[in-house]
Inverse folding.
């Protein structure tokens, strides 16, 4: 346990720690201001911690992710976003255990971060086609189930499944998908908020996710290219 904690605390730069603390405090402060539920606050803060730690390549990302996935599934169900509910309850929760195991076997001992790599062009193309087809098929299913925004919900669900898979496999391309998912999710939760949903913290969480995804996209692409050059 001590070794794990030392590894999680190692290698952080001042700017990275500042970003983690700032993001969490912004979410918490605005959640209190908007009188969000305790569940929404905890889900949002752990979600932000998860994505920042994922970008940093730290195993603790999956611990924060487990808490976030469980709570976010409940929040999504209450908002009648069934695609998000099933995604988190049936996929994200078990994938936290898978991701933790795989990453633990591929840690760079010098940096205390996971090894980063890039996909081949053909693999990236096949993944893009799969996401497009999956969005159409799943969107039609959610439409029949009475989902509030079936095809938008379907895209975020299908793309998130794909992003989680390649995240576990340590591919930098995950962040291109996360950026797209975050843009759509911000729109989706803004619409839900406008319609009377009181989970303002969840909307703010996705805004922070988007900002973080852009930062991490640049970082992972840079480090993955260095790894390819070795």
């Amino acid at each position: 346990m001590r070794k794990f904690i030392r590894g999680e605390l190692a290698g952080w730069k001042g700017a990275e720690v500042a970003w983690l603390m700032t993001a969490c405090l912004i979410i918490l402060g605005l959640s209190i201001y908007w009188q969000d539920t305790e569940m929404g606050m905890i889900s949002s803060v752990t979600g932000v911690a998860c994505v920042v730690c994922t970008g940093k390549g730290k195993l603790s990302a999956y611990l924060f992710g487990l808490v976030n996935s469980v709570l976010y599934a409940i929040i999504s169900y209450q908002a009648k976003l069934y695609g998000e509910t099933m995604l988190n309850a049936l996929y994200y929760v078990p994938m936290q255990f898978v991701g933790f195991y795989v990453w633990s076997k591929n840690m760079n001992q010098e940096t205390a971060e996971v090894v980063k790599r890039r996909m081949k062009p053909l693999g990236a193309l096949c993944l893009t086609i799969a996401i497009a087809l999956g969005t159409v098929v799943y969107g039609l299913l959610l439409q029949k189930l009475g989902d509030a925004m079936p095809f938008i919900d379907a895209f975020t669900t299908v793309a998130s499944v794909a992003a989680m898979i390649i995240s576990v496999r340590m591919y930098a391309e995950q962040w291109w998908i996360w950026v797209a998912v975050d843009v759509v999710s911000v729109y989706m939760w803004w619409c839900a908020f406008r319609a009377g949903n009181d989970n303002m913290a969840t909307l703010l969480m996705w805004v922070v996710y988007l900002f973080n995804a852009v930062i991490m996209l640049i970082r992972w692409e840079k480090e993955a290219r260095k790894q390819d050059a070795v």
Summary: The chain has a mean pLDDT of 86. The longest strand covers residues 107-108. Residues 179 and 213 are 6 Å apart (CA to CA). The beta strands are 107-108, 113-114.
